[in-house]
Automatic annotation (TrEMBL):
<dbReference type="GO" id="GO:0003942">
    <property type="term" value="F:N-acetyl-gamma-glutamyl-phosphate reductase activity"/>
</dbReference>
<dbReference type="InterPro" id="IPR000534">
    <property type="entry name" value="Semialdehyde_DH_NAD-bd"/>
</dbReference>
<dbReference type="InterPro" id="IPR023013">
    <property type="entry name" value="AGPR_AS"/>
</dbReference>
<dbReference type="GO" id="GO:0051287">
    <property type="term" value="F:NAD binding"/>
</dbReference>
<dbReference type="InterPro" id="IPR050085">
    <property type="entry name" value="AGPR"/>
</dbReference>
<dbReference type="GO" id="GO:0006526">
    <property type="term" value="P:L-arginine biosynthetic process"/>
</dbReference>
<protein>
    <recommendedName>
        <fullName>N-acetyl-gamma-glutamyl-phosphate reductase</fullName>
        <ecNumber>1.2.1.38</ecNumber>
    </recommendedName>
</protein>
<feature type="domain" description="Semialdehyde dehydrogenase NAD-binding">
    <location>
        <begin position="3"/>
        <end position="141"/>
    </location>
</feature>
<dbReference type="GO" id="GO:0070401">
    <property type="term" value="F:NADP+ binding"/>
</dbReference>
<comment type="function">
    <text>Catalyzes the NADPH-dependent reduction of N-acetyl-5-glutamyl phosphate to yield N-acetyl-L-glutamate 5-semialdehyde.</text>
</comment>
<comment type="similarity">
    <text>Belongs to the NAGSA dehydrogenase family. Type 1 subfamily.</text>
</comment>
<dbReference type="InterPro" id="IPR036291">
    <property type="entry name" value="NAD(P)-bd_dom_sf"/>
</dbReference>
<keyword id="KW-0560">Oxidoreductase</keyword>
<dbReference type="Pfam" id="PF22698">
    <property type="entry name" value="Semialdhyde_dhC_1"/>
</dbReference>
<keyword id="KW-0028">Amino-acid biosynthesis</keyword>
<feature type="active site">
    <location>
        <position position="149"/>
    </location>
</feature>
<comment type="pathway">
    <text>Amino-acid biosynthesis; L-arginine biosynthesis; N(2)-acetyl-L-ornithine from L-glutamate: step 3/4.</text>
</comment>
Amino acid sequence: MIKVGIVGGTGYTGVELLRLLALHPEVELTAITSRSEAGLAVSALYPNLRGHVDIAFTEPSTQVLSACDVVFFATPNGIAMQQVPELLAAGVRVIDLAADFRIQDAQEWSRWYGVTHSCPELLAEAVYGLPEVNREAIKNARLVANPGCYPTAVQLGFLPLIKAGLIDADTLIADAKSGASGAGRKAEIGTLMAEAGESFKAYGSGGHRHLPEIKQGLTDAAGAPVGLTFVPHLLPMIRGIHATLYGRLIKPAGDLQALFEAAYANEPFVDVMPAGSHPETRSVRGGNMCRMAVVQPQGGDTVVVLSVIDNLVKGAAGQAVQNMNLMFGLDERAGLSIIGLLP
C-alpha cells in the first residue's frame, strides 16, 4: 500500500483528493494536515467522508509527513516550496497541486506570483504533470508540478493542432469559463453565490497567472514561442471549465476529426466526441475526463476546439491521482473510473 499524506486537506482540492484516495485500492491515508483544524476529525468537517476517512487533521510537521511515500500539497501558492526540499531529502515523493513548480523560470514565476521562489534549484527537476505529454518523465519523478485547471483544458485542446503545425501559433485565443470553486474555499465577496449568481463576467483579461504556464507548455510543443490571448470568465455554477479555443489555419487541415481522434486514441482520460458535438461541463462533473470536440466553421480558415473538464478533478485532484498512479507503477486509471454526474 502507498502511504499518502495531504497537506492542506480542508480546501476544495484537498477534499477531492480525500474523496478519490479513500476508495483507491492501493492507498493508505496516513496524514491529513491543517493548522486551523488540527485535532478535528476529517468527517466532522466533510460529512460525505463519514465511514470512509476515519482520521483527524494534524499539524503539517515534516516528521509526520516523512513517514509517507508520497505527499500531496493542496495548499495556496508559495507554501509547498517551503517544505518540499526537506521531504525530498527524506525520500518522500511530492505532487504539488499549486503553482510553485509549474513555471521553469524562477524570475518569471516571481513576476506572476509576487514573491521570491525559495528553492529555484528544484524547478529544473520538477516534472510538469500533464500525463498526455510527460507520461514517461512522470513515472520516474520525485517532484511533480500538477497543472492548473485552465492550463489543462487549454493545452489539451490546442496540442494536436500545434504539433501538426496546422495553426498560426502567434494568434491563439483561449476563451475559458470556470465555476466558482476554481477560486478556492475562502470567503471572498466576488465568488459568493449572491454575487456570482445570475451573472457572468470576465476577469484577469490583462494577464492571468495561468497565462505563462499555458504559453510554456504550448511553446514546448511548438518548438518556438507562441502568442496567446487568454481571457478567463466566472460562471454562476460550482464546478466545471469550458474552454473555447480559436486558431487560424495556415495550411490545408485535412480531416481534423481524424487528427484529434488519432492524437488521443490511447488516452484514458481524453474523449474526442463525434463530429458536430458540443461537450457539456455537466458530462464531466465529478470525473477525471477531458471531453472535447473540434470544428472548422463554414470550412473557413478558423478552427475551434471545445474542451471541458471538472476543474477540481482533471483540473486538480484527479490529475494528481493520475500522476501518483504513474509514479508508483500502477494502472493509470486506478481509483479514477468515475462516471460524470448527470443530471
